[in-house]
Structures are given as C-alpha cells and as structure tokens.
Amino acid sequence: MKLRQLVVAFAAMGLMSNAAWPVSQQDVARLGQDLTPTGAEKTGSKDGSIPAFEGESKPLPGWTYGKVRADYWKYKDEKPLFVIDATNVDKYADKLTPGQIQMLKQVKGYTMPVYPTHRECGLPTSVEDNTKAGAIKSAIAKDGWSLESATLPGVPFPIPQNGVEVMWNWLMRYQGVAAEWPDAYTIVSPRPGSSQSIVTRWNQLIYYPWAKSGQHSPQDNGGLQNGFYYLYTEPAALAGQGTMQRYYFSKDTDTYYYFTGQRRVRRLPAYSYDAPLIGFENQYPADISFVFYGNPDRFDWKLVGKKEIYVPYDGFAMQRFNTKLDDAMGPNFLNPNMRRYELHRVWEIEGTVKAGMRHSTPKKTLFVDEDSWLVAVGDDYDAQGKIWKAKENYITPEWEIGACASAASVYNDLVSGRYVFDETVVGTGKDIKFYPPGSSDPRLTDQYFTGENLSAISDR
User: Fold this and answer.
1) What are 65's strand-pairing partners?
2) Is the dihedral of CA 173, 175, 179, 185 positive or negative?
3) What is the DSSP letter of 146?
4) Selection from 118, 98, 115 nearest residue 44 by Cα
5) pTM metric for this prediction
6) Contacting residues for 103 by C-beta, under 8 A, at least 6 apart
7) DSSP code of 213?
8) Which of 88, 199, 204, 382 sits between 20 and 30 A of 448, alpha carbons compared?
9) Using one digit for the tens of pLDDT, what is the confidence trace for 281-306?
C-alpha cells in the first residue's frame, strides 16, 4: 500500500495525533527510490495532471542575481489551462480548500487561473543526504512540540507520522543560510468604502545558523532557530523603527524593538503569536507571516492526510520587481495576472488551540507542498468555526540556493473584506536575495541578531 493510502487510512481511524510510531530503516530506504530524497512521491498522478518529480529547476542561460527571474524561466510563455471562478467553482471543489471556495463564492470577480503543473522544487544534494542520515534520529521532545534532535540542514521527518512533524518540516525549510529583502512592501487594502491603503516599506534579513555546510543539531548555536531583523523605511511615522528577534527550537521568542522617539531599544515579551504588529490596524498578527511563523506550541496538530489541491506555485511574477505596485493590486484582491495556480499533492494538517491556551484563531488548517515542504495555503477559523482568513504563499524556485521559497504572501480577510499583500518586492526595483552556505556577509552571525546590536545599528 502506498504511503498516501496508509496516511489516509490511519487518519480515518483517528490515529493521527501527536503520538507517532517509529520510522523504520525499511521506510528510510524508500527515500531516493519510490520517494524523492526528501519524502515526496516520485510518480505523477494516474491521469497525468501531476507529473513525475522533475528535479531541481534551472534558469535559462544568462541569469544572474539582479535580473528578473521570470524572464529566464523556461516555462515563461505558458498560458492558463482554465480559470476557476464563481460560475464553475463547484466543478473543481474537490481540489480546492474551504478558504479558496469561499473566496470564489464571496468575493465578486475573484478568479484562480490554473496552469500546467511543474515539479522542480528540489534541494541541494547535501540537504538530501542529511535528510536520509537523520530520518530515524529526528525526534520531538517530551513537551510534544519542540524539535529535540535532527540532522540539519535537512528535512527532519521526510516520512511524517503526525502533524507536528510536518510543522517542523515547514519550519526547517531550507532557504540557504539567509534571505534578505533589501527593499520590500507590506500593503493592507482599504477598508470597505475607503480608498486609502496602509503602505509600509521596509528591509529585512533572516538568518538560519543551522543551514551552514555540514551537519548541525537543534542544540547548536544556543538553540537558535533563526535570527530576524526588520527595519521600517516608510511611512515617515514608522521610518527608523526596527525589530530584532531570536526564534528558538524549544523556548519563547526574544523580541527587541527600537523606538525612534525614545532613541532606545525595549524588549517586547509578548510580540509573537497573535499579537498585532505595529502599524497595520490589527490586520497583521505576528504569526501570520509566510502563512504561519513562530513556535507551533499553542496548537495540537493533526495530520489529516494527503490531497491534490490547486495551490500557488511557480510564482515568478511575484518577483517582478520592475512591475508597478499599482498594477499588481486590485481593490478587493491581488490581480489574477500575478497569481499562478497548479495542481500539486499537499499534506493537510489541522491545528486546534490546546486546552488552557488562547489564540484569536482557535483553528488553523495548513496545506504543505510534498516536494518543498513549504506551506502553500492556509485557512484560519474564528471562534464560531467560520473561515476568517484565506492565506497563500507563492512558492517559487530560487536558483542561487537550489531550493524553493515563498516569493510573496497574501492574507485575505473574509470578514473585513480587506487583504494583506506581504513580503513583496514588486515595485521596489530590487529582488529578494538568498545566501548559500559559504556566503561571507559579516552580518551572518549569531551576535548580529541581538538587542545590543539593534541599539548599535539604529540611528534615528
């Protein structure tokens, strides 16, 4: 019986809790055989709509960083196979998420252009080797959520047994040793009846110490999962304010914030989870970044199974930094010319808030691409069990690191009618930059991502 059939069978019996059965050496032997080295099914779908795994994406000759990636993608001239809208949504409902269905039915004019599927989200050979070497050794701690052991950089649980393991595959997504947005936007669409958007401009650097060459564990670097630096450049009221965060494998996040008016750094102990970020009129909780960001400890994560879903993929348009921002955004949703959907197999996991914990969204569902372990789509539910937010990551190959990443994200609020276009370089003139192992940038150290350094580099 195939892995997908086993997962669905056990899920139907209600056995997909956080308790896991051991992964055997026989399971691990499948990696690189009928499974890819990181756990996806190599074969395509029976009807051919999902192809077999194709391997790592490569640009056309002549691409170097700073050139528009979309111009060097070999499938750049493809046209949509069909478009899903309110008139035909029921026809495709079995391959859509609940949030996608509600967007199509509720938001006037919303469409999803569907393109041919390509499976080119590979990983470097060293990451594949670490995945196989660590597949049996990886473990969740007794607290039920933190990553106790893993061989990194690699996919900790290529043959996942429960939802929290899939979450750690997502959190340990390989992005090189760092990703930088030298100039970027977050835009919140206007309130209904208004024409005034919230426009923030910023730069950002995320550092992954465990992604350096070799083999590393969650205990290295003081248990640091990633360092995160964020600096507002617009609007004037926020310009110069900055955040330095330290995310860990097994403890709470440290957050430091520089206030320009006070010319000092303050520690913000509650600037995580569903805390609203400064400057966004409560439209941006801290853990909504990249659909889900931060510790997974407030939720019980259930592995529902694997499905075929139309998800955002090959989002090269999202890195067209020479496109005008106004051309990308509509009043109620992102321009469909910017959005590309493909049929892919995804792992569905469901998070429900633990007893005694609190969160503004007591239930979340995430749909995680089997090839890249990137979250493609997520739905947030409110306290009444209704869909509140439908969220998307635009999964895109990033050639300098030999892996895929999110080129931008969109969070659609189905209650307020607003949406957030996030992490986008559209209109900036500068691309996202990914740093492979061996990069010599002096900022890529643990010491850079501290409150003391935030104070030293802040000058307003």
Assistant:
1) 67
2) negative
3) S
4) 118
5) 0.94
6) 110, 333, 390, 412, 414
7) S
8) 199
9) 889 999 999 999 999 999 999 999 99
